Amino acid sequence: MSSEGIRFTVEDAVRKAAVLIEALSWIRRFRGRYVVIKLGGSALEEEAAVKSFLTDVIFMRTVGMYPILVHGGGKAISQAMNEAGIEPHFVNGRRYTDEKTLEIATSVLANQISESLAQEIRAQGAQAEPLHFGTRNCLLGEQLTLQAEDGSPIDLGHVGYVNDIDQGLLAEVCQADAIPVIPSVALDASGQKLNVNADTAAAALARILKAEKLVFLSDVPGIFLDRHDPGTLVSHLETERCRALIKDGTIDSGMVPKVDAALEALASGVGKVHIVDARLPHSILLEIYSDRGIGTEIVK
Ligand SMILES: Nc1ncnc2c1ncn2[C@@H]1O[C@H](COP(=O)(O)OP(=O)(O)O)[C@@H](O)[C@H]1O
Ligand SMILES: CC(=O)N[C@@H](CCC(=O)OP(=O)(O)O)C(=O)O
């Protein structure tokens, strides 16, 4: 080997060591702390990205953090509905959920998506436990009733929100070294299944657990001031600014429930909320274990 080659190898190794050292303080700080990670339906579409993301989650667990995976699957539910000849219908961003839709949504979320995420975690040599109505249930909820502008109730069918969680179950699963995988389906007091928006389910979990962090993995690098200009990605936002960006329409569509949920979580004691790109390999590790994140962080 030439001396040039040797120098490159040593420099390269030193650089790798520096990366580990940078991570050390963050690893120490987050040991034994809950981090709620929400994986959106758009991010779930890319198999290779999901595999690499799950490797990151396993890394987090291995260095002592308690990652909790909450997932949606809106696109897959809509596709399954179309295949069953049912037209998806949304009211104020929530899927109108009649009996048949509930059956499809809960089956896609729990039986297909949670199971396949857990299988992939196991295939990568770690432990995972799907927690839902068909296994051991973690999310408890109530029916959600929205109001129209004239004050009349809006019928959403079997749609709910999370009002409590089984904290003992989560602690038991995390301490047994497994990664909880939770679909956005809650059970009400009578055992009725409720379809819950996954952003709000993740935020409720983070809020009740007073998690260190709530991370949304989506199909954008973070929040843009102008969605057509990649140079306008904002790396740091405070709650007041977020409210203003929603009000003036800079933040719209699918980003609104995420940011609303983020503000609610921060108000209830969650340390920080991050919005990162699920398609970028190792985005979550770069966001959490390095001095400069790569997505958008939202703080109180
Ligand atoms: N200011 C903004 N910056 C970035 N994305 C935005 C913004 N406003 C709206 N969006 C939209 O929000 C979408 C993410 O929400 P959504 O599609 O519901 O994702 P998920 O399936 O991950 O929940 C982005 O793909 C983007 O189109
Ligand atoms: C009530 C309601 O709308 N539930 C959502 C649950 C899945 C979800 O939120 O998935 P994403 O994270 O991919 O959007 C739905 O049926 O689509």
UniProtKB/TrEMBL annotation:
Enzyme Commission number(s): 2.7.2.8
Give start and end of each Aspartate/glutamate/uridylate kinase domain.
Answer: 34-277
Q: Write the record's keywords in alphabetical order, separated by commas.
A: Amino-acid biosynthesis, Arginine biosynthesis, ATP-binding, Cytoplasm, Kinase, Nucleotide-binding, Transferase
**A GO biological process held by the record:** L-arginine biosynthetic process via ornithine
Q: Which amino acids does the record list as binding substrate?
A: 73-74, 95, 195
Matches recorded under Gene3D superfamilies: Acetylglutamate kinase-like (3.40.1160.10)
Q: Which InterPro entries match?
A: AceGlu_kinase-like_sf (IPR036393), AcgluKinase_fam (IPR004662), ArgB (IPR037528), Asp/Glu/Uridylate_kinase (IPR001048), Glu/AcGlu_kinase (IPR001057)
Q: Which Pfam families match?
A: AA_kinase
Quick one: where is this thing mainly located?
A: cytoplasm
The organism's superkingdom is given as Bacteria
A GO MF annotation of the entry reads: ATP binding
Reaction equation(s) it catalyzes: N-acetyl-L-glutamate + ATP = N-acetyl-L-glutamyl 5-phosphate + ADP
Report the GO terms under cellular component.
Answer: cytoplasm
Q: What residues does the record give for site: Transition state stabilizer?
A: 38, 258
Keyword GTP-binding in the entry? The reply is no
Pathway, per Swiss-Prot/TrEMBL?
Amino-acid biosynthesis; L-arginine biosynthesis; N(2)-acetyl-L-ornithine from L-glutamate: step 2/4
HAMAP family noted in UniProt: ArgB
Cited function: Catalyzes the ATP-dependent phosphorylation of N-acetyl-L-glutamate.
Q: Which family does it belong to?
A: Belongs to the acetylglutamate kinase family. ArgB subfamily.
The protein in question is named Acetylglutamate kinase
> Which species?
Gimesia benthica
Instruction: Tell me the gene name.
Output: argB
